[in-house]
Structures
1.
Amino acid sequence: MANIKTEFLTFDACYVRGKKDLYVAAKKLEYDPSKELLVRITRGGICGSDIHYYQHGGVGDFILKHPMVLGHEVIGETVPNDGSNPVKVAVNPGRQCNNCEYCLEGKSNQCLDMRFFGSAMRNPHVDGGFAQYVAVRADQCIPYNPAIDEDIMAFAEPLAVAIHAVNQAGTVLGKKVLVTGSGPIGALVIAACKAAGAAEIVATDLVERNRQLAIVMGATRALDPIKADLTPLRSGKGYFDVSFEASGAIPAIQGNIDLTRAGGVMVQVGMNPGMVDLPLTRMLAKEIRFVGAFRFINEFTTSVQWLEKGLVDPRPLLTSVFHFRDVVKAIELAGDKSQALKIQLSFEE
């Protein structure tokens, strides 16, 4: 017997089918309004993983096997079926099972049955949020003050990643902090560290524009890791209490071991699919705690609150906004790191 609660909706979405194969096409959504909320998407940010799917047809071991809707940095407004007024919401792209051992331990980012927007990890793949509508559970919708500009709130997901990284360090209050890699995530880590009370934040990046951005986002200093003399920061078994590696570059990971003081914390945020040659002897001798940072847990709600309160202003990261029907132009620009930082898509007609 058919489920009489099921409803259908057809609209347009941004599909990636393989390397350099991205297009807008109709999507048919089947959902149960008794269990899910319908959200009309208004804005979405293009992430590095979206760029990887477009440029390479996959991310690491997750290879596209069929067309998939991209996108996981999205906001919108609810479409009530009871006559109530729509509510502006930031959409948490992770739908954890809430039943596995990790979910029950409060580690939902490690869920054994996670369904994350725009991910080819599962087959069939999980469609993302670059669509005119999505259906999600109520706990994935975080209401926010409609007076907050969409340019700002569309950063809720990447800021949540940054806040989770800071939480993985334990605390940065009063600490000397290093952030290597000052792209969008690194810059948000810098802003999160400043908001969390870091005493000093030194950023590094090979690109001058990114170093300038790091200062705008709250860094005390921004250095070129190749040209700058880092000897004083390595002396005495390292200068920094906490280091965040946001580039995924192997030399940066290796270098942070010397720059992080004995007994300090290294948080790995950037990802590199290749094997990393870590000088473990130096790390062990200095008793450095090396910890990964993957996605977020309840930091998504914290991120929305921080953006509402103005604790972090992400607008310096925003390069341009494209209409979603121009998604190919948008993602081409987003993939040119010499020209763009964060590109957003508008889903307003």
2.
Amino acid sequence: MARSRTKVQAEFVLFDVIYEDGRQTSNRKVPTNIIGGIDGDEPARAFIEAQDAEIAERSGQSRGPIARIVRAGAKTK
């Protein structure tokens, strides 16, 4: 008897973040429930900026402004 397979929805989408000073962080997790729709991936920027603010508060070091975000593994043009 054949097994039925159900498609599992990922809980997170991974993003690479490039800062204005040229630094990059990879594989930043953003919950799937906040992205998509009309705004596309733009809500991910606000989520990552909030993460950066929390990290800066705890560590005392600011990461600086974000230049752009791209999905991890996405091909660049």
3.
Amino acid sequence: MRAANGRTFGLRRGRREFTNWIDEQLSWKETCYIGDWSFLANLRLQGEDAEELLSRLSVNTFDSFKIGQAKHLIQCSANGNVIAEGVLARTGEDEYVVHGLPCYWAAYNLEVGRDGQFDVEAEWRDTFNFQVQGPRSIQVLEELTDQPLKDIEFIHFDTISIDDVEVTAIRMGMAGELGFELQGPAADADAVWDAIVEVGEEYGIQRLSERTSSINHLEACFPTRGRDYIPAIFSPEMGQFRAWVDTHASRDILTYPIEGSFDADDISAWYRTPVELGWDRNIALDHDFVGREALEAELANPERTIVTLVWDDDDVIETYASLFEEGLHHKYMDMPHQQKRAMIADTVVGDGSAVGVSTCRGYSYYFREMLSLCTIDVDWSVPGTEVTVVWGEGQNPRSPTTDSHEPMEIRATVAPAPYKEDNRRTDPTQ
């Protein structure tokens, strides 16, 4: 099995901004966007034991998982904390394509952790991965392909042709809207991207930039590694895996900066379980898998869950106003969300005690509100509950700061997650 070095990634998404972030944010509700997630790894697993390997490592069921279907794949540690999550597609009788961080955990277990235990061949693939999301996405793609996409059900895929390039179109995505993820050979990425943009102009397509790319994750509640949780790979027993990744990954997936008012003595405080991230519906107790015992106990008595926090307008405005006043200012809030790749985790307080951790703070122009995701104690998770976010670094020694600022207590209200209506299962034939 060859290493995943030399992959092509970040073909187009690296642009900080294309038109402006307000237009880009509105695109997945009103028209559609194209975004580039080609930096994610892609691995094909083939062999009679491929399903057994994936089943042992993943919380998901493989019962009735048919060729042409996909799923959100979640892999955990023995303690039930998320190691990796991504997309899995079943492409043949004994063939699967893994997309995202689970590629590395699966490949490592096949090559090192469970060496010789499974009859599986692994092949790293150099692919592009574009998202075309929004109510007009299907019109754009059907005009491009002259093929009907309306019959592709949610979490299913088919092969289509774009500019004479064979592309896998998976009906899913991170915008909480009708849309597709498109995967194909990296060598054809520019041709496919340009074809989509050209046809999409008639439908108001926007190109999604880094400036606002995480707002769809925030509105639709798709927690993201490095922003909402740290992968559970930093314990001593995971040292061999980290060393393996360091020589096999084509980009740094071992560095996760941490900032914010939340602090703890151990990195595991920034780990999260699938239950805490709202993925409990994906956990199937119909098979043995790493972390099953811990997750079974948590499902029976969950302590934390995920919600959206709606930040108080006046308090948010005060943080910006402080920049124009004498004395210490409050920590600046990047617009529409933090522009550095980091987990900015802030303590959430209720009745004087810490009750949760706020992450992925961002401004939604669609709702005209500052929002964040929050892993919170179950007793505090009822919509309408009032809490306080400690915005700033406080006494957190882990947070590198380039200025002195005064922490700000920002009032917030608990709201459902996802905050935006989930339209991914919209029937395009209606």
